[in-house]
Structure formats: structure tokens, C-alpha cells
Design a protein that fits this description.
This protein is of the alpha+beta class. It is about 25% helix and about 30% strand. It has five helices and 13 strands.
């Protein structure tokens, strides 16, 4: 077994968030299916196993598929069926939709962090950290376990418990620990239950986007009892925002002043614009991406002191 020395990330401690100035992006149920066929391109990691209290021994792979002309990671859909590198170049087809909210949410969580595709909600919450290759593999094992729990009908009425149990099992195996209860935690870290609860709560707020999930059946040749493949297509809806700059008279705040010049620039440097206020003392910029913007007055109207109210 390949041991990954990537400790459970725990910098996120709050369980619920109040998001200010961000439009809600609640995902709708994923009803569509992906392309008619997918093709195995390569294996990343394979043959790593862990022991789940619910599922028994789980053999995990990380596989890359040609998914409608782009590369996407797929997950094994049939626990115990065949999957190996000899199937490279083979195809799977006959897709069917999976709409279970825990599966679609957790796959969205996985793809979001492994691909670096984040919603405005995730960015505002500060959870837009892109995983490195090792941690992506760590989470691959966890999401795979959740898929198998769904397939086995053992997610139960409280998916937080099921997700926390599988996270604990993955962690124990890959980190060599011996936790026995999902409410246990390493010193200074969140419990497995808290971590699962937090991720699911964020998902319900729309943080992980809308992931369309499909299951594919092997349609290649020369092999039998081959894994079905679960693969997702993450859709990130980007809201745009409006910023209004207003220059007013310091002795009469209700009076707007025309001709004030401002420079607007995003913190990441992707947007920069010089503007001049109109007759009402304002200038409005539309279709801005979510982010932090600096507004600097570069020249006041003639005879007026510098200063602005935004």
C-alpha cells in the first residue's frame, strides 16, 4: 500500500457561514447525462486499499478518461469488479444519470478542489485552495467510498455519519492511525463528523457548484466483470457584480460632483479601469467578477478637494 503523508486539512473550523454580498447559488438536481461514451486514457494511482467498517476491503484507483474531448477523473462504480491498466484505450457507454444529492455534492467538492474551479461562495468562504496531487489522491479514496456506500444503499438517513465513517477509515489506513469513533480528533484538529458536516453544509449553500454525474457501463472487448465508471461534469456559475463610485460635496453629501477621476483595479490584477464621474457624481461598472477591488481618486473636479464616498 502506498502511504500518503498528507494530513487531514483542518484550517476550516466554523460549521456554518453567513455570506455577505454574495448571491445564493444553490445547485439544481443534475438530470442530464454526459457524452455517450468515455475512453480510459491513463492510470494515476492504482491498487491502493483501505479497510472500511461498512464496506470491508476497498481497492481504490485513480483513472483519467477522455470525457467529451476533455480529461476527467472517473471513479469505480462496482465494488469488487475488475479494473486495471490493461483496459487503457477501452470504452464505456450507455450513461445513466445519478442524482443522489450526497454523491453529486461530494463529487463537485472533489472536482472543484482538484481542478481549481470555484464558485463565488467558495471564494468568499476562503475554501478555494487547490489540492496537490497527493491530497487529491487522498480525497479520491474518500469520494470513492461515498459512491460505494450509495451503491450499496448504506448512506443512511444521515449522510454526515456515513461520510465521516468513510473519512475516518481512509485516514486510518493512509495515515496509520487507529481512530474508532467519528467524534474523535487529533489534538487541535476537527473531528471526522465536524469535517464532514462542514463540507456538506457548504455544499448545501452552493459552494461546490452543480455537478452532473453519470454512470457508464463497459462496452469494450476482451474483458469481463469490468467496473462501471462514475464520472462527473462540474458546472461553475459565475455571478457578476456592479460597483458604483460616487463623488460628493464634503459640505453637502447629497450633492454629486461631476468630473472626478478614479482608478479601479482588482486585487489580483485581472481588471483595471480609469473612470470619470458623470453629472450626478457617479460612475457604475457592471459585470465585475467576485473579488476585492481598490478604488483610488486620481483627480478631483477643478477646485474640489480629493475624497470619495463609495
Amino acid at each position: 500500500m502506498k502511504k500518503m503523508n498528507h494530513p487531514l486539512q483542518t484550517r476550516l473550523t466554523a460549521l456554518l457561514l453567513t455570506l455577505v454580498c454574495i448571491l445564493g447559488l444553490l445547485p439544481s438536481s443534475a438530470m442530464a447525462v454526459g457524452p455517450s461514451t468515455i475512453k480510459l486514457e491513463k492510470f494515476g494511482f492504482y491498487g491502493v486499499s483501505y479497510q472500511s467498517a461498512s464496506l470491508g476491503r476497498c481497492l481504490i484507483h485513480q483513472m483519467y478518461y477522455d470525457y467529451g474531448g476533455k480529461t476527467a477523473i472517473g471513479f469505480c462504480g462496482t465494488k469488487g469488479a475488475t479494473m486495471n491498466d490493461s483496459l487503457r484505450g477501452q470504452k464505456w457507454g450507455n450513461p445513466t444519470s445519478i442524482t443522489d444529492p450526497t454523491v453529486t455534492m461530494m463529487m463537485g467538492y472533489y472536482y472543484s478542489h482538484s481542478l481549481g474551479k470555484f464558485t463565488d461562495v467558495a471564494i468568499a468562504a476562503g475554501v478555494n485552495d487547490v489540492w496537490n496531487a497527493g491530497y487529491t489522491w487522498y480525497m479520491n479514496a474518500w469520494v470513492q467510498a461515498i459512491i460505494w456506500r450509495y451503491k450499496a444503499g448504506t448512506l443512511g438517513s444521515d449522510p454526515v455519519v456515513a461520510c465521516a465513517e468513510e473519512l475516518m477509515a481512509v485516514y486510518n489506513t493512509l495515515e496509520g492511525t487507529h481512530f474508532t469513533n467519528i467524534d474523535q480528533a487529533k489534538e487541535g484538529h476537527n473531528s471526522f463528523r465536524d469535517r464532514a458536516q462542514y463540507i456538506i453544509d457548504l455544499g448545501k449553500q452552493g459552494a461546490w457548484g452543480n455537478c452532473t454525474v453519470s454512470e457508464y457501463t463497459f462496452i469494450g472487448s476482451g474483458a469481463s466483470n469490468v467496473q462501471k465508471i462514475i464520472i462527473g461534469d462540474l458546472d461553475i456559475v459565475k455571478e457578476t457584480y456592479r460597483l458604483t463610485v460616487k463623488k460628493v460635496d464634503s459640505t453637502n453629501p447629497s450633492k454629486g460632483l461631476a468630473g472626478a477621476q478614479f482608478h479601479i483595479e482588482s486585487a489580483n490584477g485581472s481588471y483595471s479601469k480609469d473612470v470619470i464621474t458623470g453629472t450626478d457624481g457617479t460612475y457604475t461598472v457592471d459585470k465585475l467578477e467576485a473579488g476585492t477591488y481598490a478604488v483610488t481618486e486620481t483627480a478631483p473636479p477643478p477646485g474640489v478637494n480629493a475624497g470619495a464616498i463609495l
